[in-house]
Write a sequence for this structure.
């Protein structure tokens, strides 16, 4: 056997070794919501698995409500720092100030949480949002807590009605946004909310996973 072939096979046999490591968080295409729980803030956004032209996806429908689905899962960012997901919205909100409590609504968001445990002031969260009006790349503090930062990765209605894929280096984002070296996260959540504006929002979410690249 060629030495290079042998070395590759050896790597595959090593515990925890992977040439293309991928860790599933939301396996919605398999119709799987195992491990996900709902957290309600105001009423309940309706989350369910539906059939789309792309296959099975997670649908979120909000009418003056705010609840999210979250999954407690520890991710080692030194091994799989890249968060991948896809999403689709039909429309954004109009005229809301997302930096204020009265306008803190988003048709879609995916966020990661570093749990501070008993030291709650050490909790950190990055909200990757589909913003209604903030330019892509804009960041701002969450209107309700100092422990979360909002980051616009998609903005406005230009991409409404079609699926778009996202990829973020979470480890680098945490370093940039909080000025701290953080090597793991403890939870992932999705949320579609419209409680503050009193409007309606709908979004579709594809599979969510972490990968080495």
């Amino acid at each position: 056997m060629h030495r290079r072939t042998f070395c590759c096979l050896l790597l595959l046999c090593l515990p925890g070794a992977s040439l293309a490591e991928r860790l599933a968080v939301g396996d919605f295409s398999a119709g799987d919501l195992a491990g996900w729980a709902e957290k309600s803030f105001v009423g309940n956004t309706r989350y369910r698995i539906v059939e789309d032209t792309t296959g099975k996806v997670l649908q979120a429908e909000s009418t003056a409500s705010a609840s999210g689905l979250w999954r407690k899962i520890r991710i080692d960012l030194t091994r799989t720092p890249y968060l991948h997901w896809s999403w689709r919205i039909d429309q954004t909100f109009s005229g809301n100030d997302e930096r204020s409590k009265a306008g803190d609504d988003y048709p879609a968001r995916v966020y990661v949480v570093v749990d501070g445990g008993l030291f709650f002031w050490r909790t950190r969260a990055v909200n990757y949002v589909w913003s209604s009006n903030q330019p892509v790349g804009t960041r701002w503090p969450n209107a309700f807590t100092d422990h979360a930062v909002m980051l616009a990765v998609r903005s406005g209605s230009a991409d409404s009605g079609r699926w778009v894929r996202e990829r973020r280096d979470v480890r680098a984002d945490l370093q940039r946004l909080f000025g701290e070296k953080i090597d793991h996260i403890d939870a992932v959540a999705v949320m579609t909310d419209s409680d503050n504006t009193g409007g309606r929002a709908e979004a579709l979410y594809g599979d969510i996973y972490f990968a080495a690249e």
Observations:
- The first strand starts at residue 22 and ends at 26.
- Residues 20-211 form a domain with the Jelly Rolls fold (CATH 2.60.120.260).
- The chain has two helices and 14 strands.
- The chain has one domain: 20-211.
